[in-house]
Specification:
The chain is about 25% helix and about 30% strand. The chain has about 550 residues and is of the alpha+beta class. The chain folds into 4 domains: about 170 residues, no CATH class; about 70 residues, no CATH class; about 140 residues, no CATH class; about 100 residues, no CATH class. The strands form 7 sheets. Strands 10, 11, 23, 24, 25, 26 and 27 form a 7-stranded mixed sheet that branches. A hairpin with a 2-residue loop joins strand 17 and strand 18. Helix 1 runs parallel beside helix 2. It starts with 5 loop residues before the first strand and ends with a strand.
Length: about 550
């Protein structure tokens, strides 16, 4: 061994990379690596071999000193020089004894490299070490190697060792930086996004367009003729094609026979000598408000004059109560005629019953009941035909106006209480698009300021003024009454203007017949076209332009 070598004391946590770095920084050719007994190097013994190879690659001799038996055993296998606890070198497991104890008698100053791997090379304060005088050979006949110069090293508990530990651990002593909590971070992130969004909204272009709309009132009565005999519209004559439908249907209805309460009353005429006709269903009322009706028309004879005295005349007839309940099973009663109330006849015409009212099992079908059921059956069959044809044509453009349909009874008969009937329903339809064509043509030709007029309103169809089903013709008048016949679709205009430059915007606006004048304002000042989003375009109606 040479006259000088360096001792590198490894810490427990020093790994191979740190030790290689310290080895390469050593200024001595011979280095003794002191490993703690519980060094992490013991976890991977190949690290010893790597350290030895790295030392040899830079021309250094690496020796080892440790109390760890596993490390010692592995070092012997790779023929690495080992120092035991008495500082005698051992090679290949054989102990070599020194001939004399070396004691320092003079101190000298040298530099020791104690830098960690990640630190810059710094020079520590000089340590006072002892200069070893030349040793005397006790046995000159032995060819022993020169004794090594042993530097004065710090004890593990010395200030130098503590300073080294503090030096390597200085990063752990740095003040801990406390970052804001997640809530604070989230708040700043969200605030940043909101601020960014608001800024982008403000810097994006906007367009303000002040427009003055034209106003033209329109009031017109347009005569319309519909004919099944034409195949195309005659705009000059106002005739549009029509389609004639004729459908028939047969049905029947049973007139329900139900129990009723009724009886016989005698009607008196004490009013005048003139007879009085009473129609079917004329009401007769009791003192407590119960209503009974006569079933057929009847003529009440006039009163007779005897000397100067008026003798009432009378006639008997059947009456039926409004309700079939026990309350109507009344005894002999006095009746008045509500229809004559507040007239002189109210006191002159009255009726009496001499017998109690009773339940009538089989009431005869009177004329009023038959006519009522006939009308109900006719309306029912006509509505069924109309519903069927409208359901068939619901997906078409055909329209039916009020009064352009009719129903007639082709056959009618009654058998006991069953009513049978055959009806025919006929109607004239037309297409809505043909009607709009006539309206547009009429307005465009009669109003010079409304050229190319288009009627886009919902149509409220009028009633037919005349219908001739034999000829298949229908006539009606369509009325228009508008304060302004130039509707402005501002939302559609915004979509047309979106993304256009100023010249394109002016071209589109000038083509709109409903705009009288317009003023365009773009923001910010450097913007030369409308925003691509119609939501950023604001159209203001200004009557002062």
């Amino acid at each position: 061994m040479s006259q000088g070598f360096e001792i590198i004391r490894a810490r427990i946590k020093d790994n191979t990379a740190i030790l290689i770095d310290r080895l390469m920084r050593s200024k001595q050719q011979e280095v003794v690596l002191v490993l703690p007994k519980n060094s992490i190097i013991a976890a991977d013994l190949n690290s010893i071999k790597i350290l030895k190879e790295e030392a040899e690659s830079i021309g250094k001799t690496l020796s080892l000193s440790t109390e760890n038996d596993e490390i010692k055993s592995f070092a012997k296998k790779i023929k690495m020089l080992i120092y035991d606890n008495n500082n005698f070198p051992v090679s290949g497991g054989e102990k070599q004894e020194t001939t004399e104890q070396i004691k320092p008698d003079k101190k000298v100053k040298i530099m020791m490299d104690i830098l960690p791997p990640s630190s810059r090379i710094q020079e520590l304060p000089e340590e006072i070490i002892e200069e070893i005088p030349k040793e005397k050979e006790s046995e000159p006949d032995y060819n022993l190697p020169p004794k090594p110069i042993i530097y004065e090293t710090a004890n593990q508990n010395s200030d130098l060792e503590k300073n080294l530990e503090n030096f390597y651990n200085k990063e752990s002593r740095l003040p801990t930086v406390r970052w804001p909590g997640r809530q604070a971070i989230s708040f700043f992130v969200v605030s940043g996004f909101l601020l960014f969004g608001a800024t982008m909204y403000l810097i994006l272009p906007k367009a303000d367009i002040n427009v003055s709309l034209k106003k033209i009132s329109l009031k017109a009565q347009i005569p319309i003729a519909v004919s099944k005999n034409v195949s195309s519209s005659n705009l000059l004559s106002g005739i549009i094609p029509g389609q004639y439908f004729s459908l028939d249907k047969t049905g029947s209805k049973t007139i329900m026979e139900s129990s009723r309460v009724g009886g016989i009353i005698e009607i008196y005429n004490a009013y005048s000598a003139a007879p009085q006709k009473l129609v079917a269903n004329t009401r007769f009322e009791t003192k407590d408000g119960k209503i009974f009706r006569i079933q057929n028309s009847i003529m009440v004879p006039g009163a007779k004059m005897l000397n100067t005295k008026l003798i009432p005349s009378s006639v008997k007839t059947e009456v039926i109560g409004n309700e079939a309940s026990n309350d109507y099973l009344i005894g002999p009663s006095y009746f008045t005629i509500p229809g004559f109330k507040e007239t002189p006849k109210y006191a002159g015409f009255y009726a009496k019953s001499s017998e109690s009212m009773a339940i009538i099992k089989k009431a005869s079908l009177n004329e009023a009941v038959i006519m009522q059921n006939k009308k109900e059956l006719q309306d029912q069959l006509a509505q069924e035909l109309k519903t069927d044809i409208l359901n068939t044509l619901k997906d078409s453009d055909l329209q039916l106006v009020e009064g352009a349909s009719a129903v007639k009874i082709d056959d009618y008969k009654i058998n006991v209480n069953v009513l049978s009937m055959k009806v025919t329903w006929q109607a004239i339809f037309f297409k809505e698009k043909d009607l709009r064509t006539i309206i547009n043509y009429f307005v465009s030709n009669h109003y010079p300021d409304l050229k190319n007029f288009t009627f886009n309103d919902n149509i409220i169809y009028p009633e037919a003024s005349r219908v001739d089903f034999k000829k298949g013709e229908l006539f009606f008048t369509f009325n228009i009454d508008k304060n302004n016949a130039l509707p402005a679709d501002l939302e559609a205009l915004k979509k047309e203007l979106a993304g256009r430059d100023e010249i394109g915007m002016r071209t589109i606006i000038s083509d709109k017949t409903y705009i009288n004048s317009a003023a365009i304002s773009l923001w910010p000042f450097w913007v030369n076209r409308a925003p691509s989003s119609s939501k950023k375009i604001n159209i203001i109606i200004d009557s002062s332009l």
